[in-house]
Design goal:
Blueprint (H helix, E strand, L loop, with lengths): L1 H24 L3 H6 L3 H30 L2
Helix pairs in contact: 1-3
Length: about 70
């Protein structure tokens, strides 16, 4: 479970940095990294979204029950 959370946290950070760059300077980091290959970009966006959902689940559902032990 720990490695999943670490990977999810890294992907959420990548997503947050991407949105920061889009908002500040209109630069899409994911498109730049994938060289505008739309399938790979879509896969990265899906992984970032799933990672965000995992972090929500971990923060509100899993972590409080794990700390109760």
């Amino acid at each position: 479970m720990r490695i999943t959370t670490i990977i999810a946290f890294i992907l959420v950070l990548i997503g947050a940095i991407n949105w920061l760059l889009i908002g500040l300077v209109s630069f899409n980091l994911v498109t730049f990294i994938t060289m505008d290959y739309s399938l790979l970009s879509s896969i990265i966006y899906v992984l970032v979204g799933l990672s965000g959902l995992w972090m929500i689940f971990y923060s509100f559902m899993y972590k409080p029950f794990n700390e109760a032990r």
